[in-house]
Write a structure and sequence with these properties.
about 240 residues; alpha/beta; seven-stranded parallel sheet; two-stranded parallel sheet; 9 helices; 9 strands; about 50% helix; globular; binds NADP nicotinamide-adenine-dinucleotide phosphate
Length: about 240
């Protein structure tokens, strides 16, 4: 299988890639930090991956997506599985004051994702096979005062994916939206917290791999986040406005 990992330095993406590191699989890893990319490539090769090539790309720069997909195709030929995990979490308080930061959040999390997904959809529709996994977030389910900039940057992609999934299903291409809750990773290391609501990249990766086998459409990781978000979504606005969520 030929696997394209976008945001390949992410803790979750690394854990997913490791689960597929065997002689049957070739990888094309895309991320921003080249040093980390090289380390990840060595790690996957040591774990048995057949071929691993890397590309450094900064998705804060508009318009680089066609070149990224072209280079992935040149390396892999047919792309069988795509994992997309690049993202900024950022700070809601900053986004409320700094329009440049807000626009950058949308450039990285939303616009680059929509562009990459559009290019990949067209490619895979012709192939008539393949899987696309997009790591969204439970934060996309409802705009909350504490992180509505980040949440909405993911929600736009989640809605886009719903339509894309129905379009590509007719061409035997499966699109899976993953919604993790709290996961221990560099993205969340500034957040104090531990306990039953927290998961690890390895656990999330295991759930993703199983979800792909079952061709799940939307996957809450772990599953109990489905229940939590169902409750949060059902809180009436008149009460929601009084909460500090
Ligand atoms: N951790 C959580 O609790 C949690 C919860 C829900 C959803 N998620 C989602 O899960 C995905 C993976 O997150 P993670 O927890 O594994 O976080 P992570 O380890 O911090 O990974 C995020 C990755 O995004 C990449 N990135 C950031 N800005 C970029 C840019 N301008 N261009 C290219 N790449 C850029 C970084 O690449 P470099 O290292 O190369 O700079 C980084 O490795 C994200 O989409 C995140 O929103 C995470």
């Amino acid at each position: 299988m030929n696997i394209l990992v976008i945001g390949a330095n992410s803790a979750i993406a690394k854990a997913v890639a490791r689960r597929y590191a065997n002689p049957a699989n070739a990888f094309y890893l895309v991320a921003r930090n080249e040093e980390k990319l090289n380390k990840n490539a060595e790690d996957l090769k040591a774990r048995g991956a057949n071929q691993v090539e890397i590309k450094s790309a900064d998705f804060a720069k508009a318009g680089i997506e066609p070149e990224v997909i072209e280079s992935a195709k040149a390396s892999l030929g047919r792309i069988d599985l795509v994992i997309m995990a690049h993202s900024i979490l950022g700070d809601q308080a900053v986004f409320e004051k700094d329009l440049d930061a807000l626009n950058q959040l949308y450039q990285v999390n939303t616009l680059s994702s929509l562009n990459l997904l559009t290019l990949l959809a067209n490619e895979m529709e012709v192939q008539k096979q393949g899987n696309i996994v997009f790591i969204a977030s439970v934060a996309a389910d409802r705009g909350r005062p504490s992180n509505y900039a980040y949440g909405s940057s993911k929600a736009a992609v989640v809605t886009f994916l719903q339509g894309m999934r129905a379009r590509l299903a007719k061409s035997n291409v499966h699109v899976m939206t993953v919604k993790p809750g709290f996961v221990e990773s560099p993205m969340t290391e500034h957040i104090e917290g531990s306990g039953p609501l927290w998961s690890t990249p390895e656990k999330v990766a295991e759930i993703i791999q199983k979800g792909l086998v079952k061709r799940r459409n939307t996957l809450y990781t772990p599953w109990f986040w489905w229940g939590i978000m169902t409750i949060i979504k059902s809180i009436p606005e008149c009460i929601f406005k009084k909460l500090n969520l």
